[in-house]
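Reading group handout, session on sequence-to-structure problems. Before we discuss, look at one worked example. The prompt was deliberately terse, the way you'd type it at a terminal:

> structure Ubiquitin thioesterase otulin isoform A

The input record follows.
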Amino acid sequence: MFTFKSRGRRQAADTSPERAASEGSGQDRLEQKTSKPNGSSANVEERQKKVTTIFCLTKNEKEFYVPSDESCSASVATRQKQKRAVEIKEECTHKSHRRISQTDDMKAFLTHQAVCENCEVNLPGFSNSSAMESTVDNEEDMYRDAEEIEREKVLLVCERGSTENKLSVAPEMDIVEYCQKEWRGNTPVAKLMKKGYEAVSQKFACIRRVRGDNYCALRATLFQALSQATEQPNWLHSEDLMLLPEKLLSKYDWIKDWQHRGKLGRKMREIGDEIKEYLGLLRKKWKSVSEMKTPMEKQGACNELFKNEEEEYCLYEAVKFLMLNTAIELYNDNKEGKNVPVFSWLLFARDTSSNPKQLMNNHLNHIGHTGGLEQVEMFLLAYALRHTIKVYRLYKYSTDEFITHYPNDPEEDWPVVTLITEDDRHYNIPVGMCEETAV
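And the output record:
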C-alpha cells in the first residue's frame, strides 16, 4: 500500500515592485473568483485544505478514495487479511498440484527401477481433490516443503523394498497366469508369446522370474544347476581347480585387468587370492546342496544362497573365470590344430574378441555391469560348467529354433538345465511338472 499526501501551500508574497505589478491583475482575478459563494467548479478553499489521498492497491484493481484516518486504517487491515487469506489459498493449491505432479514423476521413476530389478514398488495414490483438501486442512502440509515430504515417503518405500525384495529368483508363479499378466494385448508379438507360453505350459506348470541386472543368464543357469545337483562334479572336486588362478596369472599377466563388481585397481596377488576364494566358495556350496536329500531342501538352500548378494556375486565371478579358462583352452587347442567346437570359431571371429585377452576386456569384464551374455557366450557358459543349457526361445515359436540347446552336440553325461527367454537377453526359469536330467 502506498500513501501519498498533498498539501496546499500559499505562495509567499514577493515584495519587489516588479513582481507585484506583474501579478496584480492575476491576484485580483483570483480574489474575485474565490469570493463567489457557490459554483459549478470545485471550491478553491476546499482544494486548499490539507487532504490525504490514499491509493489502495489490490491484486486485481486500484481504488482511489479520501477516507478519514480511522476508517482508512480499519480498511487497510481488513484488506491485508483478505489478501493474506487469498495468497495462502493460492499457495496451498499450487503446492498441492506440485505434490501431485512430483508424486506421479517419482512413482514413474521408481516403477521403472522396479521393472529393471524385478521388484514391485507401490506408492500411495493421490487424487487431485483429496490432495487439495488434505493440504488446506493439514497445517503441516501448508508450511512444509512438498519436496521434503515426498522425499521422506520415497525413502520409506525404498527401505521397505530393500528388505522385502532381496530374493534374486522370485517364488513360483503359474506360467499361464504369468503370460496373461505380461501379455494382455492382441498385437502379433503378444499372440506369438501367448502361443509360446502355452507350448511351454505343456511341459512346465510354473515359472520363476529372475532378477534382470545383466547377471540373469548366469543367475538362472547356476540356480538351476545347484537346485538339481545330485553330486559334486569331478572337475569341481579336482585339486587342480584351486591352482588354476595362480597358474593362469603366471602365464598371462593381462589377467591382472580382471574386474570384479566394486573391486578395481588391485594387485595381481590380490586378484589371484580373490579368484581362488570364489572358486572355493563355488565348490563348497555345490557340495553342500548336492548332499541334501529332497528337492525341497535343495530349493530352500538355493533360495537362501541367492538372497545373500555378497556370496551370490562371488559365485558369478567364479563362473566367469571358468569361462575365461575354457576360452583359453579352446583358443590354444585351435592354434595347435586340435578339433574344437564350431562355436569356438564364432567366438574368436568377432572383432571384439579375436583372442582371450580381448574376450576378457571387452566382454567378460562387462557381464553384470554394462551387458549380459550374448548367444555365442551361452555356449561358452555351457562348456565351462559342463552342463547342457536347454532354452525355450518364445519369439522363435513355430520355428526349428524354438528349443535351442547350448551346445548343439553335448556330452551324454552332462546334466541339463532348462531356461526360458522372450528375447535372448533376459532369462527366467520354468519349473513345476518335471525335472529334466537328459536332453
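Points for discussion. First: Residues 165-387+404-433 form one domain. Second: The beta strands are 2-6, 51-57, 62-65, 173-174, 206-208, 388-393, 403-406, 416-421, 427-431.
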